[in-house]
Amino acid sequence: MRTRLIIVFLVPMTVILLALGGAYAWSVARSIQQEVATQQLGDLGYFLTGARQALRVGSPEVVEDEMRRYSELYGTRISVFDRSGALWASGESNPEAADEEMAELVGLALSGRRSDPVSPVLPWSYGKTLTVEPVFDDGNVIGAVSISASADTPRGEIFAHWSSLVAVFALIIGLLFVAVTRLANWVLRPMLRVDRAMEAIEHGEMDARIADDTGPPEMQRMIRVFNQMAEEIERTMSRQQEFAMNASHELRNPLGALLMRVEYLSTGLDPTWDDEVEKTREEGRRMSRILETLLNVARTGQTDSAFAVVDLGELAADRVGAWEDVAARAGIELAVHRDAGVHSLTDRTSVESALDAVIDNAVKFAPAGTTVEVTVRHDGEERVIAVRDRGPGLDPEEFERVTSRFWRSTRDQNVPGSGLGLAIAHDLLETLNGALRISDPGDGGLRVALHLPGGTP
Predict the structure, then answer these.
(1) Domain interval for residue 264
(2) What's the pLDDT tens digit per position in 195-208?
(3) Is residue 125 scored above 60 in pLDDT?
(4) Which of 19, 27, 76, 360 has a 20 to 30 A CA-CA distance from 252?
């Protein structure tokens, strides 16, 4: 995020600075070039008068001494050409022959035309600046004067200006980078504090708050709202924990009394009731384990599930046995089909609770005279407990919504229930690293499968 902000702010400013700097650098180069060209033309105009007089009288000595002093003083080369284009007078002791460029410009001047403006000089340019002017006498061209100077001086001056400009621009861009970075940090630092506080709350630190509300006004308001939200979440969680602790603690006493009454009543029953009494005891002990787990969660906020290798076939048979009477009263038969040796490393109590919720849902919606089938099998690395009923089923678009809390299909609003069973089973399976999957078996009804990780005894 910070990198994107820096790019968004810095890149346009840099582009604008480069555009302005490029225009200014070119303007400086043209200005220096124009100054050099003007100076050369002025000097050339001075020597045109002397060259005209010398060509009239046919004596190069009239101008050569002055041309020589000028060349020695400024390091330039001044030459006078006669009407035929031959070198007639020079400011150098050993003048060089005219090169191709010089000859072309001299020929142009002898035809009565002035040379073109001096070409631009840039820091990477090499060579010389050359200007040739015709010498007129009563409207006739009687010769030409050339002035040639090295481009080192204007090139060095332009390079010095450009170097200064680059240094200034580098400094400006560096300052802009620092300013944009500080601005991005000022904007994003509150967001980072919010992110850290949210992460702390996610890990159970419900008292996490943001004490510093610096930054933009919008972020300050967001921090205040976040702190208020965190306080409300903490109060809600605290109330939930208190309710769970109170409910689980209060339920332990009547459950204990109920189990004691079962033990007392069992002493007066004949042995034919031993099996039913033992089932009642087991259900009571299972409810005690559930209450202990609920109380522990309320105290510590952690489930601390007791993972062990569980025989899922045996577990499913036990739970089906516990639901047989309820199913029989509704005219429904329960059947178990299980593979041998289907084990899972999981928490038995949580799996039992999830399976109870699924069986309860199947018995509730299955019509009388049908069979609810519970299948336990291997599925690759997973172990599956599937409950299949022959009730009204669900539409395909309702499969994802059926595990939402308090959701019920519109056609089942008259059926008693809260819409929590499959949602609870889904949550329990997630805590066990498993999954609850709902599908259409194809010939009516619904198939709800508990997928659990494998395990060996």
Answers:
(1) 206-304
(2) 888 888 777 777 77
(3) no
(4) 360
Tokens representing 228 are 């208020």
Residue 126 CB coordination number (10 Å): 10
Tokens of 410: 């519109």
Distance CA 114, CA 448 (A): 100
Residue type, 209: R
Of 304, 324, 340, the domain-final residue: 304
Average pLDDT over residues 368-378: 92
- Asked whether residue 409 carries a pLDDT value surpassing 70, the answer given is no
Domain CATH code at residue 449: 3.30.565.10
Is 212 in the same domain as 335? no
Largest CA distance in the chain: 159
Classify the phi-psi angles of 204: left when phi > 0, otherwise alpha if psi is within -120 to 50, otherwise beta.
left
The whole-model pTM stands at 0.48
Could you count the other beta carbons within 10 Å of the beta carbon of residue 375? 17
> In terms of pLDDT, which residue wins out, 76 or 114?
76
Contact at 8 Å (CB) between 88 and 60? yes
Residues 150 and 134 occupy one common structural domain: yes
Q: Which residue has the higher pLDDT, 239 or 362?
A: 362
What digits encode the pLDDT tens for the residues 162-197? 888 889 888 988 888 888 888 877 777 777 787 888
Q: What residues contact residue 124 under an 8 Å CB cut-off, 6+ apart? A: none
Dist CA 147 CA 91 (whole Å): 10
Tell me which residue has tokens 């002055």.
66
What element of type H or E holds 336? strand 333-338
Query: What is the chain's Cα-based Rg?
Result: 50
* Adjacent-strand bridge partners of 309: 345
